[in-house]
Specification:
Elements lengths: L11 E8 L3 H15 L3 E5 L4 H7 L5 H7 L4 E6 L13 H13 L4 E7 L13 E7 L9 E4 L7 E4 L5 H18 L3 E6 L5 H15 L6 E6 H10 L6 E4 L1 H14 L7 E5 L7 E5 L16 H13 L3 H15 L9 H15 L19
Parallel strand pairs: 1-2, 1-3, 3-12, 5-10, 8-9, 8-10
Antiparallel strand pairs: 4-5, 4-11, 6-7, 11-12
Helix pairs in contact: 1-9, 1-11, 5-6, 7-8, 9-10, 10-11
The structure holds 3-isopropylmalic acid and manganese (II) ion (MN).
């Protein structure tokens, strides 16, 4: 019976899209890891992705999208057919599933944190500890453009970049707010204002106008090509990077490679206005070549689940999970040990952090992880 004046916390309702290849294996470990924090989830699985498309002929129906809207969050493993497979037309799943979810659910920030674990081998760069705020609903991803006279010598293809003041402003504002919350002293806008003068001008003006409201934060700018050099040579320069959709896509693969590999890279596709669920997914793909071998690294999926917990209002559990992932990612003996063993190590550390010797000390005893 519920006591008067207290409310029983209801389990968070999470839609699970395991997807293709290693997706289901890594999301299984992510769920185990969440369970070990004691946070209760009520999950429902959705068969979506390349395999589901080949069976049903459907990428994402309006009905399924409507059902997904009712969840508190969506956890996604990976989607995509095996590389080289001709069965699924190029772009069909990307546009029809992943981008459709980003656009329809207004997941306008793609938050991607990177921190190099201690002792990570090259090409990892020590001192890299940054978060990318990637605009996630506009830019060249919006799908503006078309083709004329296809297959002829006179073919024309255009692919525009859509940048709205509303889209740019809310993304940059999120970046400054994040820096302020985390006491990060610098926000770097990355663009290509010397060539993309129309879109670049909108981004640069909006950035400068917003920066004035955050006098304690240094507003920094780099062209995207120079940013690549700085990421490799001076990664410690960066705190928060804010950038457009396509630059963010490319920079986050580079940052992933420089911080221990894409097997660690997590992401949160956020609807900060909370008009619907946000979506959490590892940055890596379906990796069909290693699916079923038990060798996929689940840390990116587990870290994405930690970001989900934070978004769901479970910061303590999120920090515990994130700290466990950070510790495990520094255990280089574990990196070859397989999906389940890595999951076990995370679960063990989470349990230890909540163990009886620590109880009663609240957050003092909790290793503080950085999410996002
Ligand atoms: C990513 C992926 C996607 C993107 C693809 C799969 C559409 O590369 O999440 O970074 O380009 O955004
Ligand atoms: Mn990408």
């Amino acid at each position: 019976m519920t006591q008067l004046g207290t409310t029983q916390p209801r389990p968070h309702r999470v839609a699970l899209i395991g997807g293709d290849g290693i997706g289901p294996e890594v999301t299984d470990q992510a769920l185990r890891a969440v369970q070990s924090t004691g946070v209760e989830l009520e999950t429902e699985s959705f068969e979506l992705g390349a395999a589901a498309y080949l069976t049903s002929g459907e990428v994402l129906s309006d009905q399924t999208l409507a059902r997904l809207r009712d969840f508190d969050a969506i956890l996604l493993g990976a989607i995509g057919p095996p590389i080289g497979s001709q069965e699924v037309p190029a772009g069909l799943l990307e546009r029809g599933l992943l981008l459709r979810l980003r656009f329809e659910l207004d997941l306008y920030v793609n938050l991607r944190p990177f921190a190099t674990p201690l002792g990570a081998p090259a090409p990892a760069r020590a001192g890299l500890d940054l978060v990318v705020v990637r605009e996630n609903t506009e830019g060249p991803y919006a799908g503006e453009g078309g083709v004329l006279r296809r297959g002829t010598a006179a073919e024309i293809a255009t692919q525009g970049s859509v940048n709205t003041y509303m889209g740019v402003e809310r993304c940059i504002r999120f970046a400054f707010e994040l820096a302020q919350r985390r006491s990060i002293s610098r926000v770097t806008l990355v663009h290509k204002t010397n060539v993309l003068t129309f879109a670049g001008d909108l981004w640069a003006r909006t950035f400068a106008a917003l920066a004035a409201s955050y006098p304690g934060i240094e507003a920094d700018y780099l062209h995207v090509d120079a940013a690549c050099i700085h990421l490799v040579e001076h990664p410690e320069r960066f705190g928060v990077i804010v950038t457009d959709n396509l630059f963010g896509d490319i920079l986050t693969d580079l940052a992933g490679a420089l911080s221990g590999g894409i097997g660690l890279a997590a992401s949160a596709n956020l609807n900060p206005a909370r008009t619907g669920p946000s979506l959490f997914e590892p940055v890596h793909g379906a990796a069909h070549d290693i699916a079923g071998t038990g060798t996929a690294n689940p840390l990116a999926a587990i870290r994405s689940a930690a970001m989900m917990l934070e978004h769901l209002g479970e910061p303590e559990a999120a920090a515990r999970l994130e700290a466990a992932v950070t510790e495990v990612s520094g255990m280089h003996s574990l990196s070859q040990s397989g999906t389940a063993a890595i999951g076990d190590a995370v679960v063990e550390l989470v349990a230890k952090a909540a163990g009886p010797e620590h109880s009663g000390h609240g957050s003092d005893s909790t290793p503080q992880g950085r999410i996002g």
